[in-house]
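SAMPLE LOG
Freezer: B-3
Tube label: C17
Construct: single chain, 278 aa
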Amino acid sequence: MNNGPLPPAGSVPRGQPVSAPVPILEFENVTICRDGTVALENISFTISKGQHTAILGPNGSGKSTLIKAMTRELYPRYPERSRLRLWGRETWQLFELRSLLGIVTNDLVQSCSRPIPALEIVLSGCFSSIGIWPNHRVTPEMEARAMEALRFFDLEHLASRPLSEMSSGEVRRAVFARALVHDPRALVLDEPTNSLDLRAQHEVREAMRRLAASGVTVILVTHHLPDIIPEIQRTILLRNGRIFFDGDKNSALRPERLGALFDVPVRVLESDGLYHAW
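STRUCTURE (predicted):
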């Protein structure tokens, strides 16, 4: 899968300054309240194209609020002194944004786990629906993209199988394919291995690695260390709605730092680029 056409080499005239690429995400002094409580406080960070990033934190740290801010479901409390930009813009038409930023949440996985064929589930990503409805016009181009997305995740042979008859790992990969049908530039994965057995966890992590290698920028939101695949080198630690640490993965995932993050003594083991904590 690709991220659209790139400008040809040498397309910038000689002698003119080369503009820095526009970041995917820019949070600047962002505070967000939910139900009268501060859920995020003075959050500032930037994620650039190709900068695979993990956002790690305990339950209640503000991870869900952060995702809702990315998807423009929630907005900063003090817009006059904060900025929240996606690809350099603060205002988006929602369907336009969805074509650039794919989102996979557990709520979406549950919504898709119906007796609907995998191909139809993937195609429904073109319409931001669950399944294809009579008012939807499926073009040959859409169907070709949907089959390409299924093929990317080794699910082409299951195109006609309902998700209700698939394994949990296959369902998760089918929902990944649904998010890819627009060929987005970035993909946000929210707790991607939640409630999966060991085999399904392995399948999903391998799918994440393929995504990262394909050119799609992966933004992982989790509290589970083994989800942080080797391709992710930057980790943002979130605690009580604030950024606790932002930097290199190896520095972030030290026992003393994770112990302070989760308020419990932690031991960490790294093996083949994957981290485990107990």
